[in-house]
Amino acid sequence: MTVNRSIRLARRPHGAPVPEDFELAESAIPTPGEGQALVRTRYLSLDPYMRGRMSDAKSYAAPLEIGDVIIGGTVGEVVASNDPKLAVGDVVQNYGGWQDYSLTTSKEAYPVDESVAPASASLGILGMTGFTAYSGLLAIGKPQAGETVAVAAASGPVGSAVGQIAKIKGCRTVGIAGGPEKVAYLKEIGFDVALDHKEPDLRGRLKEACPEGIDVYFENVGGQVWDAVLPRLNTYARVPVCGLIANYNRTEAPSGPDRSAALMASVLTKSLTLRGFIQLEFVREMYRDFLRDTGQWVAEGKISYREDITEGLENAPETFIGMLEGRNFGKTIIKVAD
């Protein structure tokens, strides 16, 4: 290749993103400076958090500016290097963004061991996605053998990992997903109960599935799923809040009465723990254990994972839009190059 293609933010989405919010641009391939390496992207991870970075609303991270390359985790091959710790031919994971080539350093890039799993797994079960599940469940959820762990968006890359790790820890697992195909997948990977949130009376079906309540609820969705789960939470239940995908494209507050008073009453009377988190806060203390444990579980067949791979950087915007609408099945990845 002689140019660096990139997908940039053309304008801030209002509600659900549309193709016009993105721009395909071309520029010169960057030259690594002192202490830098040039990485050619093989795989690009698409994740719901990126929708928040496209907004200028106050959040845990600075928003993208108009014209910026969209942020994103990548796996690629070092093709030029002025960093003594990165050699040409090394395969690394970094945050190269939605583009063909990126600059990185050995402080920002992690080596990828393709003997453990395909390189793309470093963007999913053996990367940020898997670590989000591992750290949120174990550090905040603190599941104990015999407890009931419920998971929203359970067929997704985070939710499916949460359910399988909880099962390894001796818990009863309840997965909530959308559609019969995804529900069947939950049963295939070992969930004790799999519920379709698109079917009527989720609250009633949850009550039947969890007669003794829920001890840990891993929140990825919010909205009507949260409304159904809240009454089933046991005293001292723990709720790691990882995402609220049902709210990401909202342009106004939901209709209906203000239910915050009822929520706070439940928090008080049941001594609930609700804690939002970003996986980066656990990296220093847990990432090494995560790589060891999850790599072993994958190798032993105790954890399986599914990838939804689309070829072509130019298809990233449409694939991202579809992911936010629930059209993906598994970890959403763009294959940028061989």
Automatic annotation (TrEMBL):
Q: Which UniProt keywords apply?
A: Oxidoreductase
User: Does this entry carry the keyword Oxidoreductase?
Assistant: yes
This protein is called what?
A: NADP-dependent oxidoreductase
Its EC number(s): 1.-.-.-
Q: Which SMART domains match?
A: PKS_ER
UniProt-listed PANTHER family: PROSTAGLANDIN REDUCTASE (PTHR43205), PROSTAGLANDIN REDUCTASE 1 (PTHR43205:SF7)
Provide any one GO MF term from the record: oxidoreductase activity
Q: Does the keyword Oxidoreductase apply?
A: yes
Matching entries from Pfam families are given as: ADH_N_2, ADH_zinc_N
Q: Which residues form the Enoyl reductase (ER) domain?
A: 17-334
